[in-house]
Amino acid sequence: MGDNFLSQEEIDSLLKKNKGVDELEEMKDSDMSSETKSIMEEVGRRTMSASAAALSNLTGREVRMDEPEVSTISFGQLATGLESAHVSLQMQFEKGLQGNNVLLMDISDASIIANLMMGGDGSEVGEELSEMELSAVSEAMNQMTGKAMTEVSEMLSRTVEIDPPVTHVWKSKDEISIPGIASETKLIKISFRVIVEGLIDSEMVQLYALDSANKIVEIMLGGKGGIDSEKEMPEGPHGEEKGEPLSEYGDSKKEYGGREVNIQEPVFAELKKQARQRAPRNIELILDVPLELSVVLGRTHKSIRDILALEPGSIVELNKLAEEPLEIYVNGKRTALGEVVVVDEKFGIRITDILSAEDRVRKLG
Predict the structure, then answer these.
(1) Are residues 21 and 153 in the same domain?
(2) What angle in degrees, to the nearest 10, is found between the helix axes of 131-156 and 34-59?
(3) Are the C-beta atoms of residues 64 and 211 closer than 8 Å to each other?
(4) In whole angstroms, what is the distance from residue 156 CA to residue 80 CA?
(5) Over the stretch 262-316, which tens digit does the pLDDT of each residue have?
C-alpha cells in the first residue's frame, strides 16, 4: 500500500491493541472502586513516609518518596513487566488482616543501600548481592515494613501483626513467585518514586493481596473487618437467633425435641460480700532458688555502619556519666544501685541504694 494508507493487517493489529487497552482499563475499574483507590493511596502515602524515615536513619542520607500510584495488576502481568533483578520481602499477615504483603526493590538500589549501611559511600553498585549485603538489605526492608505496618495499625485502630518476613532475590522471571499467589491472582500495586540523596532515583513497589486491600477499605469505611453486620446471625435450636437475650423469651413455652418445654429466666442467689483473705507469703520456700545478678555499666545505640567500623582500640561512649551509680539487676529486674570496687583483683559492686524487701520480691514475680 502507499505511504498514506494502512494495510488491512495493520488496521487489524491496531484494533487488537486498542481492544487490549480497553479490556485492561475495564479490569482496573471493575477491580478497584474510586473509594478503594483513594484509601489505598492514603495507605501508601503514610506507610511509605514511615519507611522513608526508617531508611534515612539506616543509611544516614536524606530519603524522599513521591506520591504513590495505585493500580490493580495480576501477578503474571507484574512478573512480565519486571525487566531487571529485584529483591522481594514477602510477609504474611498473622493478626488484624489476612493475605500477603510484598515490598520490591531493584537489586542495584539494594546494592547501594547495603553499601551505605556497611560504611561505604554508595558508589559501589553491583548486580549481585553478597551474603552480608543481602543481610543488610533484609534488615533495612524489615525495618521499613515494620514502620509501615505500625502506620497501618494506627490507621485501622487495631493490632496488625505479620509472620517473620522472608527475603528472596528474583534474578530472572523464572524465579519470580509468591507462595499462595497464582499468575492470575489480582493484586493492589502501590508504586512510588524513591530518591536517596544523590544516589538513588528509582521506583519501589508495595503489593497487597486484593483481599487484604478490601479488608483495609472495609475497616476504614466503618466496618469491623469481620462478619458483615447486615448478615443474619445463625439460628439456634428453636429457630431464634443466637445471641438473643434470654429476657426476651419471658416465661413461655417452646417446642423442643417433639415435646413442649417451659423457658424461664434463671434466678440467681444473691452473692454475699466476704472479707478478702490474703494467702500466706511462704517466702522461706524459695530462699534457696538461685538468681542471676548483673551490673549494667551503661548503654548506647549504634548503627550497623558504626558496629562494622569497630576494631581493637575503638572506644564506645556510653550514656552514663563517670560519677553516676551503676544499675544492679536481679533476673532482669532493677533492684539496686551501686559503685564499682576491686576485691582481690576482681571487680565488685558496693551497694549504695536498694529497694525495700517487699518491692524486691514484687519485682521478681
Answers:
(1) yes
(2) 130
(3) no
(4) 33
(5) 655 555 556 555 555 454 455 666 777 888 899 998 888 888 888 888 888 888 8
The pLDDT assigned to 29 comes to: 45
Count of domains observed in the chain: 2
Alpha-helix runs per DSSP H in the chain: 8-31, 34-59, 75-81, 107-117, 131-156, 210-220, 304-308, 357-364
Spacing of C-alpha 143 from chain mean position: 9
Burial of 74 (0-12, 13-18, 19+ CB in 10 A): middle
Q: Is the model's pLDDT at 127 over the cut of 50?
A: yes
Give the cell for residue 200: 538513588
Cell numbers at residue 5, please? 494508507
3-state secondary structure of 2: coil
Q: What's 233's DSSP letter?
A: P
DSSP state of 232: P
For residue 314, give the C-alpha cell.
575503638
User: What is the spatial distance between Cα 192 and Cα 227, in angstroms, rounded to a whole number?
Assistant: 33
Note whether residue 178 is domain-resident. Answer: yes
Q: How many CB atoms lie within 10 A of CB 125?
A: 14
Domain range for 113: 8-220
Cβ neighbours of residue 360 closer than 8 Å, sequence gap 6 or more: 330, 335, 354
Instruction: Give which of 184, 24, 170 is closest to 104, Cα–Cα.
Output: 170
CA 192 to chain centroid: 19
Domain assignment present for residue 359? The answer is: yes
Task: Flag whether 47 is in a domain.
Answer: yes
Residues in the chain: 365
Cell triple for residue 233?
A: 446471625
pLDDT at 179 over 80: no
Q: How far is CA 190 from CA 29, 47, 66, 200, 202, in A?
A: 16, 11, 12, 19, 14
Which residues sit opposite 90 in a β-bridge? 102, 166
pTM of the predicted structure, to 2 decimals = 0.54
Q: What is the CA radius of gyration of the chain?
A: 31
Integer Cα distance of 35 and 20 in angstroms: 25
By CB atoms closer than 10 A (0-12, 13-18, 19+), residue 198 is exposed
